[in-house]
Amino acid sequence: MESELKTRIDALEAKYAVSGQALLDYLDGLVETDYLKYWDYIHLDTLLSLQSPRTKHHDEPIFIMYHQITELYFKLCLHELKDVIESEGMDATLMEERLRRCNTYFKALDNSFSIMVDGMDRKQFLKFRMALLPASGFQSAQYRMIEMACAPLNQLVHIDHRQEMAEEKDVTTLFKKLYWQSGATIAATGEKTLTLIQFEEKYAAGFQAQASQWAGRTVSHRMADLTEAGKMTEGLREQARAFDRHVNVLWPLSHYKSAVRYLAKKPADVRATGGTNWQKYLPPRMQLRIFFPHMWTQTEKDAWGTLPSKPSVNK
Ligand code: HEM
Q1: 262 close to ligand 1 (CB < 6 Angstrom)
Q2: What does the pLDDT look like over 146-175, one tens digit per residue?
Q3: Overall pTM surpassing 0.70 (yes/no)
Q4: Measured distance CA(278)–CA(258) in Å, rounded
Q5: Could you tell me where the beta strands, DSSP code E, fall in 100-236?
Q6: What is the pLDDT of residues 5-24, one digit of tens each?
Q7: Alpha-carbon span 282 to 275, nearest angstrom
Q8: What's the CA-to-centroid distance between 138 and ligand 1, angstroms?
Q9: All domains of the chain, ordered by start, with CATH?
Q10: Which among 129, 119, 115, 124 is positioned nearest to 58, based on CA atoms?
Q11: What gap in Å lies between CA 37 and CA 42, rounded to an integer?
Q12: Fewer CB atoms inside 10 A, N or C side of the chain?
């Protein structure tokens, strides 16, 4: 026991000595320090105080909390994707593990979307949403960051411009043609919706800086490097395909279902808070967003967004 204690004391002494600190001072601090409590560690009081409904409707907190839960899952995902992009020595085994985690998070999101689709009273939803204008999940910066982490901007431009901009390198030029920019532009006038104007005011500069920093280093590039070096594995390919499908087909389909449940109405659909033509904008078969196109067969790409039962592996 004594020698175990000494080993640790020596290790601590060495640690503090490096920065010219005295271990004894830190031990004095430790004697004074209170025990860590669960609620302080995870900032529980703060977390539970972050819901501020704009109306008195019973179901509005559900809408707020499920968005917050989703943003936390997005953050978990970005935590893994950033590691893939920024870590040196990321091999296929580690990258597979990172993407496997991302798939677990998106699976949890897919499985829980019924909290939105079936979990709120439609009448209440249609009332409280009017107090939220012009805010929209469209303004989720983390959702856009996940996309920029995974694929070069060329693949995220609107499908109508994707081919002509396949070789474009300029971030500002590409940024103007991103699919979501067109989605939130009023077709008749060419004007941006207020939702888009405000989103850009807050995030456009940061997005472009981040895209420039990640140029040539996205998850897609990392995988191309491994393929070129002959180090791509079947396991990584499976996880990459599953992730592409989760983010670009399954989540958008679950999300679209909630828009249909609440906004579809005869004779005319309810207008979206973000002002997009949501029936055309949200279905994944319209946007055809694919992070890793070289991993899918032409037949699979042609059927994108129409839910094949299980993707076959493109060897
Ligand atoms: C009842 C539930 C929901 C409805 C009716 C709904 C509706 C919509 C609509 C109509 C849009 C298109 C943009 C617009 O014009 O506003 C949109 C976009 C979006 N929403 Fe939701 N939404 C719901 C729940 C959620 C949740 C829980 C999240 C999680 C963060 C979310 C995230 C997003 C994102 C990221 C977009 C942009 C999608 C894209 O650009 O392809 N939404 N939503």
Answers
A1: yes
A2: 999 999 999 999 999 999 999 999 999 999
A3: yes
A4: 11
A5: none
A6: 999 999 999 999 999 999 99
A7: 12
A8: 6
A9: 62-302 (1.20.58)
A10: 124
A11: 9
A12: N
